Every structure is written in C-alpha cells, then in structure tokens.
Amino acid sequence: MSKSDRRSDGGAPCAVLLSSLLLLSALATGACKKSEEAPAAAAPEATTEAEKLDTTLTSAPPAPQEFTIIGRMPPQWDAQDVDVMVGPGDTISWKVGNGRHGVRFPVQADCDIALATMTFDPPLDPIPGGGCQSKTTNVAGAVIVTAKVNIALSGDLPYDCVVHRTAMPGTLKPK
After folding, report:
1. Domain for residue 2, yes or no?
2. Of 7, 97, 139, 148, which one's alpha carbon is 20 to 30 angstroms from that of 73?
3. 33 has which bridge partners?
C-alpha cells in the first residue's frame, strides 16, 4: 500500500480497537479455546490472561486520604499540597497555626454544595444573607472543623476565613 492509499482520519487506530474488541468477545464466548489435544494444564493460562485483562479494566478507587489545612498569620491557609484535591472517603481538617480563624463558604450555592457533598464536625452554621461557616478559634493546634467527603465534587469549591474573609481564600478541587 502506498502512502497515498493510507487513511489519515485515524482509521488504523480504529481497526486496532475493533480487533481488540473482537478478540475480547471471542475470549468471552469461548471461541478461542485450545484444541482438544492440548494438555489440560494449558486451559488455566487462558483464564489467567482473561483475569489479568479484567483487573486492568476494573481498577480499585484510590485509598482515602487525610488533608490538614492550617490557618496562619499573616492571613493564609497552608496545606500539604497547593491544590487540595479531594474525593469520596477523604477527610479535610482545618486547624489553627496562629491567629484567629474559621472556615466559611460565603456564597449560598457553594455552601449548598459543601453540605451536600461533605459531613462537617462540628456542623457549620448558616450565615444571615447566605452561606455557612464554622465557629472561630485562636487556640494554636486546635481543629476548627473537619469534613468527610461523601460525594465527589463536580468542580472547584471555594472557601475563605470567617475572620479574614477574601484576604484568606482557599479552594477544594475534585480528584
């Protein structure tokens, strides 16, 4: 086949994908069984290859992680990672490093998402006019609030400090 006869629209990758799917289908229906003369020990090998393929296609979800976000002065949130990426099963603990801090979701829609996707301990309080927030504390090392992620976030979830407000922003990101 000359270069001009080759398709440039991605036909080759589609053919490989189709061939792979046909092979998987044949394995699943038993059409690729070894001949009757083959030793009995050869049969488990085909099953083992199918099992390997099955485990590749169905990987386990990542193990839950624990994140600590520390409020410091001058006003900033310090975290283990710059972008705190959270998913179901993860736990986020906001703590005081120094100064007085609290966690708030000042926009009602963000508060609704936070409350729908996470369980807070202690529970967040409503903010008159919209949003929700934790209590504040200035005890170094104290936990302000802990959140357990129950449902994956669909997008970034901004928060800030009850005391320092937009001067101390933070964001939780989906995994």
Report:
1. no
2. 148
3. none
